[in-house]
Recover the amino acids of this structure.
């Protein structure tokens, strides 16, 4: 089967050199992603206004998923090819094989596109094929303005491409065309959606995490970062930086008035991010802040936060409300992760100021020992996002077993994933987003092992359960 990839419209209105560079980047991104599926069975061709992907039938679903999630693609067409030349009868017969059943009892219109040199016009082709379909089918009629079915095909020299499906893409620019950013990632709704939006806009998005909650929290945020990267940004390698911030929080408690603790924490995160970004050669930071969503996100407080950095600070969610953000999280698949992510930033702020004073903030800042912040940045650890699975499993705080050994197996994947690729041994399916509240209802005299495909979510949630006092849980990874 062939896929015809249509480009994001903003690419097509760019000047010649910029458009050429963007198309080339999308072409290379697709080659990187598709060749991981099967380099021998997939062919990618670049043209001035489109990209074509030829694929063996066995890989069709994998290719569909990649095309749907790759930034820079407005839509893609699924086509079946025939060598018909300009023989109108052959063209009509092949189109009819795929479209006659679709126009049964419905109005239709025929739309043909040509490329190359032809003796017949598009209108002549459309008229002939339309007459053939009307004669050999049972449609309700022809409607040129508002048809129920649009019969589409393309004639490229002697090759007929019958369009069987037209699917929307992610839109946006190809990743790698708009530079790099460092995204402050907490794993909640806001930071994950903000990171997705920068990736969609073609920005290579690295992640920085400020650890306030221990090993389990870090594994959880790594899980979300890995998901975002694997779904929408896997054409480029990016970094995940973890900064230990517990001692920074202790210093905030020691040095800062309670009403300014929340703003101070955000300022220190920005300062630390700037230091890391400088080392990485990155000019911009990304946060998930939305104006007036919480006390630290009033315009005045955001201005107080921003004054500590010379970096450009992007806030893709600045004017969005929470339902809009959650709707995007639903669409991109991060809602369930976010709902199970603990929130630490808000717990250190009592009676928070909503309209902070620049002068008061300067006085509060003088009391803080910035050696503590510098030490936290020095202790930060950076790993490539694609190595997160190896990193989590190598530092596994919960025992990993290769067989259940008499324990009850709990498959914590989503129900659709578990049904699509079921375990071959007896198990109970409790999706990860339900596990924390459901596990305590189980028979605690028994042993349990958690399973997920990559072993990352099972490590995270096993650690959560251990932290909650359940010592009868381990991680199951089949040998």
């Amino acid at each position: 089967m062939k896929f015809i990839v249509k480009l994001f419209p903003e690419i097509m209105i760019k000047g010649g050199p910029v458009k050429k560079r963007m198309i080339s980047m999308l072409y290379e991104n697709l080659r990187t992603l598709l060749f991981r599926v099967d380099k021998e069975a997939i062919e990618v061709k670049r043209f001035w206004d489109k990209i074509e992907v030829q694929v063996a039938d066995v890989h069709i679903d994998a290719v569909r998923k990649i095309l749907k999630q790759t930034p820079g693609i407005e839509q893609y067409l699924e086509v079946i090819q025939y060598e018909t030349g300009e023989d109108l009868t052959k063209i009509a017969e092949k189109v009819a094989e795929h479209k006659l059943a679709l126009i049964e009892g419905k109005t239709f219109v025929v739309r043909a596109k040509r490329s190359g040199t032809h003796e017949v016009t598009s209108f002549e082709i459309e008229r002939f094929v339309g007459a053939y379909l009307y004669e050999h089918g049972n449609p309700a009629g022809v409607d040129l303005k508002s048809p129920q079915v649009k019969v589409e095909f393309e004639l490229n020299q002697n090759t007929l491409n019958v369009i069987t499906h037209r699917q929307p893409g992610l839109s946006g620019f190809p990743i790698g065309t708009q530079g790099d950013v460092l995204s402050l990632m907490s794993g909640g709704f806001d930071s994950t959606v903000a990171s997705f939006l920068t990736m969609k806009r073609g920005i290579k998005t690295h992640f920085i995490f400020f650890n306030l909650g221990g090993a389990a929290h870090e594994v959880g945020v790594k899980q979300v970062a890995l998901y975002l990267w694997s779904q929408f940004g896997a054409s480029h390698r990016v970094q995940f930086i973890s900064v230990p911030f517990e001692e920074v929080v202790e210093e905030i408690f020691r040095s800062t008035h309670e009403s300014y603790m929340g703003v101070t924490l955000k300022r220190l995160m920005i300062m630390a991010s700037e230091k890391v970004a400088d080392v990485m050669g990155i000019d911009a930071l990304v946060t998930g802040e939305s104006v007036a969503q919480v006390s630290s996100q009033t315009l005045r407080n955001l201005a107080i936060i921003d004054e500590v950095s010379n970096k450009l600070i992007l806030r893709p969610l600045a004017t969005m409300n929470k339902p809009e953000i959650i709707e995007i999280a639903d669409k991109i698949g991060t809602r369930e992760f976010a709902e199970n992510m603990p929130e630490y930033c808000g717990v250190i702020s009592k009676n928070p100021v909503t309209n902070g004073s620049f002068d008061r903030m300067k006085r509060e800042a003088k009391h803080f020992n910035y050696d503590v912040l510098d030490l936290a940045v020095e202790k930060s650890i950076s790993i490539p996002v694609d190595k997160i699975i190896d990193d989590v499993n190598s530092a596994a705080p919960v025992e990993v077993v290769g067989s259940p050994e008499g324990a009850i197996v709990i498959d914590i994947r989503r129900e659709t994933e578990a049904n699509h690729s079921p375990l071959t041994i007896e198990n109970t399916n409790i999706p990860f987003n339900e596990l924390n509240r459901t596990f305590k209802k189980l028979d605690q005299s028994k042993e349990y092992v958690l399973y997920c495909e990559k072993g990352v979510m099972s490590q995270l949630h096993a650690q959560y359960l251990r932290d909650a006092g359940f010592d009868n849980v381990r991680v199951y990874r089949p040998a």
The longest helix spans residues 16-38. DSSP finds 18 helices and 19 strands in the chain. The mean pLDDT is 92.
